[in-house]
């Protein structure tokens, strides 16, 4: 509660990112509660063996979280070079993740579990993984923001702030994906 | 004259009486006992027909919740947080349970009344 | 763009949308009053939708739908929350601007785009969405079912997603600002009730709007891609649709999980504004400040538990009906606390009837009348006959279309000087209030009895049923009252726009209020205060404190300057200050003659 | 109409004096005239206040006083208007319930009405009364009274108690409506009602007392409801143009919709339940008065029971009604005997059944053939 609002204060904005995370969680909560009711009414879920691609993508996204963590650590030690490398690596992993998701959908379609389906639980898989992918795009945006911060000549506090919001959001979508994947596994 | 403003700051919780070794052991002990009871129920009481399946399930769920409470309260330090946070978290927890229960009941009901399954 | 500018943008957009929605209500009210007459001017306005001067039945529903949508979302959610949260949060807590001015601006432009898309849907071939503002599928999902469910519904849904994005950006910003950017001394229990109300409203929004998005996404997929989330076993005429397995009830759950908190999202800021306005103009502290806050919190929490009361007769499990009835009726308890605290605030006050004060009193009256009919509806067994009748229409117009709107108007009259640096004309304000107050009761009160006679809502005409014909004269009366109410708004609009340019120049603290915004200079500065942000020492409701010669003590006045009026209670937990106070009192025994 | 307009304090009377009055220009001119009038009054007030000021009396018009008076006035007029509404419009509402559970609802209704009216009147007397009494006076200072926990507790607990009464009674009423125990000696009569844009179809169960299965995939122009005649219970089902029900017998409504959600609304019996595609919703009630008795009671020979649609369902939503006749048990039997069965020769052919076979055929190989036919049909419909 300082009156020092005239200097750069990252706290309120970091808090904004957290609140975004909350509202996003709620949205997926809305989806999963739809799914729960639906499954309770049918007595069955999507009933599929989820494509292996989802396992790979899970590993990829965990890896990207780790690279991002290293990037943060490097920034704190003012090691901008490694930070940039790690950030680029995260972006690449994110792109790979996207590709794997697409191929997972391809596999699903091949087995006949298409989006348009009389089992809404199967359509549901596409919806949540698709919306999750939207979050990935937003997350990549934030990573680029951190990258730009790393290249630009701005105060360290701002660089750290950019890095930090990218990390918060990225770890969130990582956890979100794991949650969704486990949810889909458990509620066959 | 001295400027005396009054701020109603929450009285700080002195030192955060954390977990000493004895306490950790005690909580761990409680958790072990609960787990043991759970095992007994799952491996002996239910298969042996000493308690009916569904009652067993409820006891099981209750014990698991108790366990979760201990873990969250002691190992995740909730017990030592501000009262406000404790209330908010327990409230959200209760609400989430409320939703899940309502939604499962409703889902089942819709299922029963669907014409073509 | 700073927050004050964005507040003005929200307000003006909100007023434009309100005028449009009001105009739509007059159009469909004309249809209800004179279902068999033709009005050539309708054709002039509506073109092919009213050939021969009579509104088509599909289009009637479109009018009602868009009227409801605009009023609930664009006027009361964006217009009310958007305007006053943006204006007051930084000014009343002592911040230079919002946590993220950029997000704030984005929030406005999303809102603007949402409004534009909604209005654009009037100009497409198949007309705007017409499945009611609750857009229940399958009606909203099948273009074959009603023309409005074609492109118009797609635009409605897109507009809604943008609107939700806008509200979320706004709400997140408000919460972060309130929690992180309060000035020195402004702890939570020194915030004005307006801020509490905006804060809890924003939380409500953050926790409920995303669920609407989830629901809308599934509906969009059902409509545009052929999935079956909400659809099952449908035969249109003799065409058998392929969808199977979904349930339309699930949409209702998702929608009302937002929809019910939404109605409190629209009333809570109005309540906050009314509390503040009533305290200022009664020259009295708000009665039971803590109770007021706790009741707001109570309403916030409870509002998540009651969504099913809109679904008592939709084929939901009757067991849940019982549960929701209990939770619904419990909401009346915090509402009662609020009502009685307002009454107690007036008691032995010294009431100045500024236009804002009149509207605040009007809010209390409407909230009581409308809230009490809510008690009827909340009673599941009564709702069997009342659901989807004009009784519901009467209920929510009293509590939302009147009470919440009155809160908004009170806010506009009260903070106009802060926004535009000029005063509105109070006499036109009185005229506006009394006409609107009387006319709104005349419009909405008789509608209860239509509902009690079993007249359903969203009926294009009451001509097909023998028993409804006796209500035709009442409908004519209601329509005339609505026209009077609408014309009364001209007094407001004229006053508003005239005063922006030609009103009397405002003084810095025209209402002699305590809150922080009146310590900022009249002309707008970027950053609100020229030098340091003022420090806060006391709660905002020290009006007419005994021992003080004036009748208000702004929050920025330290206790050391008001020794004669300090109360022992002011020093709880600060023994040092208490000691100084006691010493002073011992030295000045005459002045210390307090109640 | 004149009564309505006369007793209301404001609001112009509806006039209909020919085309002139309908024109936009006419109303536009009236509006301008009113605006002019208001601005003249405004000017006059201004001049008056200025002249007062010039004479040294600083206080012009005391608007606080005027507004306070208006509140007092509004209270009196408002209370009278409330009374007027209750007695005049209140007399135009639905007659007392004609069903067993409806009587309970009516009791609930009366209790709620009384309680809310008391609260309404008291709070408004306080609100407007305080506004009048405590209007601004420069001589007075408001009473600094920030809180009082005892009062606060009272007005939390008293409403809570009142609500507890309402909740408990409401809960019991609700339970008695939706949780019925089946009396084996008085089994309810099943009636199926199917809604579609914008009409209702009624199906009576026939001799076996059970309405048979439906499958929407079987819908054709000759089988509009998609009745599954392979289900033996369907074969004797009867169709009806109106709903005729015997007095004093429990009726079990089985509701379903073909296209969008509609709502089966029969307010005289206090019955409403939505009809949802893909789902069956069920409402049970017992009528207590015949149409004739009602006509005598209300002294209105044209009175009839109705059910109609209360959920927005499209352009024809405002006209989706059917008549209901409550008759004595014997009349009901006579009427029922005259109703046509659904299963006609065309449908028999469609379902590969012998034309004009004795209705309830035996379960056996024929069913197998039928289901095969159904399968073909489904495939055909699915394209
Ligand atoms: C601002 C908006 C607002 C507010 C505040 C409320 C407040 C309440 N509403 Fe309302 N409601 C709507 C807006 C609102 N509503 C809308 C828009 C709809 C229709 C949506 C649609 O279908 O289109 C609706 C519909 C609606 C329904 C569904 C009706 C139906 O479709 O069948 C129900 C049912 O329970 C209900 C109940 C209540 C209750 C119990 C309250 C309570 O919060 C009221 C509490 C207040 C009081 C009770 C008065 C003050 C208290 C006292 C003076 C104390 C003493 C009182 C007692 C002891 C009883 N509302
Ligand atoms: C805030 C909400 C709001 C408001 C103000 C109104 C205002 C009005 N409403 Fe509306 N109405 C709804 C929300 C609202 N309505 C909703 C949600 C529905 C349901 C839609 C659906 O069924 O899907 C509905 C439906 C509805 C119906 C039912 C239609 C039907 O079911 O067939 C009717 C019928 O008479 C009606 C009439 C009116 C009239 C005559 C007015 C007014 O014209 C009354 C006169 C005007 C006033 C009393 C003051 C208005 C003042 C402003 C708007 C202030 C602007 C100022 C600022 C922005 C500072 N409305
Ligand atoms: Cu059918 Cu409304
Ligand atoms: Cu509600």
Q: Topology as H/E string of chain D?
A: HHHHHEEEEEEEEHEEHHH
| Number of helical stretches of at least 4 residues of chain A | 5
Shape verdict of chain D: elongated
* Distinct ligands, ions and cofactors found in the model: heme-A, dinuclear copper ion, copper (II) ion
CATH architecture of chain A: Up-down Bundle
User: What would CATH call the homologous superfamily of chain A?
Assistant: Cytochrome c oxidase, subunit III, four-helix bundle
The low-confidence runs of chain A, each spanning 5 or more residues with pLDDT under 50, are none
Strand content of chain D: 5-15%
Largest sheet descriptor of chain D:
5 strands, mixed
Q: What class would the helix/strand composition of chain D place it in?
A: alpha+beta
> Largest interface, and how many residues on either side?
C-D, 135 and 123 residues
Give the terminus-to-terminus CA distance of chain A: 50 Å
Residue-averaged pLDDT of chain D: 82
CATH topology tier name of chain A: Four Helix Bundle (Hemerythrin (Met), subunit A)
- Strand segment tally of chain D: 10
User: In DSSP terms, counting alpha (H) and pi (I) runs of 4 or more, how many helices of chain D?
Assistant: 9
Q: Multimeric state of these chains? A: heterotetramer
What percentage of residues of chain A falls in helices of 4 or more residues? Answer: over 70%
Shape of chain A: elongated
InterPro entries (chain B): Cyt_c_oxidase_su4_prok (IPR005171)
Membrane topology (chain B): Multi-pass membrane protein
Protein name (chain B): Caa(3)-type oxidase
Subcellular location (chain B): Cell membrane
